[in-house]
Design goal:
alpha/beta; 7-stranded parallel β-sheet; Rossmann fold; 44% helix; single chain; globular; 347 residues; 13 helices
Length: 347
């Protein structure tokens, strides 16, 4: 049983809400939330400590509070939210290394839970229909959050070998979605027009924000170890999700998808990394047998139901204002026009 739990990344929505959930759990005596800035949202009965996990001072926090369980949720998915790609890499990878070093030196830490992502499986046309936890990626993520998460999991495996006395659980969660959470995918579906890759209809799998946090809670207070996929049942095709959200789509040639992502990031319409564009081409599905068998978790929401709750919460099914539609169309037409002009000059 977890007595004193340290949660990283509590200044963001999921980390803060998770700390609040844990603080209300009768199986947990004390919750300490750490981050570099104070949370702007309530964290319930959790205590906030201002600390940077990239700094060795995190070891003092763990020791002084007699922490026995660490939940690492401070792996950031978007460069914009981190202040740029360099800062994102430092927080995700260097921060994880320092946190694990602090856990390794602590004699009191007995359990480590890591919030990872199914993005570690990558995206390619050769992917299996469903990834199990033991299936390796056909193409490793080459950039962004997926690449960082692969490195994070590597350091976690190293820590587990050095400290076999510590129980380690790594949850690979599908894309979070719901009425309140904000991610690159929720930003995408809030666009008035959705750019899609011509000739592709990606398979999407989501986990509802409530389900994802409940899975993390069970991993924190339970005894499950190893890698566990977490996702809602079933998949949605990108075209089906677009119809549910009431969003028109515009097809972009695959060779221009990277350029479209760059333009959208520069204009502030959405944060599209190259890996995000690959995901919108091929999608991804994961097997959740181990989630039920080892973690004992049954999601309340299927993938379709989770996405429907997001649509309701964001009121995406209502009428679209013409101004943002025209703005997105202008961006896409500008990209296509520049590509045609470049092609004609080459020809």
């Amino acid at each position: 049983m977890a007595h004193v739990v340290l949660v990283t990344g509590v200044s963001r929505y999921l980390g803060g809400r998770f700390a609040s959930i844990l603080a209300a759990d009768p199986d947990v005596d004390r919750v300490i939330g750490v981050d570099v800035v104070p949370p702007s949202h309530p964290i319930g009965g959790a205590e906030f400590v201002r600390a940077d996990i990239r700094n060795p001072v995190i070891a003092k926090v763990i020791t002084r509070a007699a922490v026995d369980t660490v939940v690492h949720m401070n792996v950031i998915s978007t460069p914009v939210g981190a202040g740029g790609r360099v800062s994102m890499k430092e927080i995700n990878v260097i921060g994880t290394m320092q946190l694990l070093a602090a856990c390794q030196r602590s004699v009191g830490v007995r359990r480590l839970v890591v919030k990872s992502t199914t993005a570690v499986y990558g995206c390619s046309p050769r992917d299996p229909a469903m990834f199990t936890e033991d299936t390796g990626p056909k193409v490793l993520p080459r950039s962004g959050w997926g690449k960082d998460s692969v490195e994070v999991e590597g350091y976690v495996r190293g820590f587990s070998r050095r400290r076999p006395d510590v129980e380690v659980a790594t949850l690979r969660l599908a894309n979070f979605i719901g009425p309140n959470v904000r991610t690159p995918m929720t930003d995408y579906f809030r666009l008035p027009v959705l750019p899609t890759v011509l000739g592709f209809d990606a398979r999407l799998q989501f986990v509802h924000e409530d389900d994802g946090l409940e899975a993390l809670r069970l991993a924190t207070v339970g005894r499950t170890t190893g890698v566990v996929n977490v996702a809602g049942d079933g998949v949605l095709l990108l075209s089906q999700a677009a119809r549910m959200a009431g969003r028109p789509t515009i097809g972009v040639p695959k060779r221009l998808s990277g350029l479209v992502g760059q333009v959208f990031r520069r204009t502030g319409l959405a944060d599209f990394s190259p890996e995000q564009m690959e995901f919108l081409s091929y999608g991804r599905g994961v097997d959740t047998t181990r989630m039920r068998r080892l973690l004992g978790f049954e999601p309340r929401y299927t993938t379709k139901e989770a996405f429907a709750d997001f649509v309701r919460g964001q009121q995406l099914h209502g009428p679209l204002s013409p101004e943002p539609v025209e703005r997105v169309e202008r961006v896409l037409l500008d990209v296509l026009g520049r590509a045609r002009s470049a092609a004609s000059r080459v020809g």
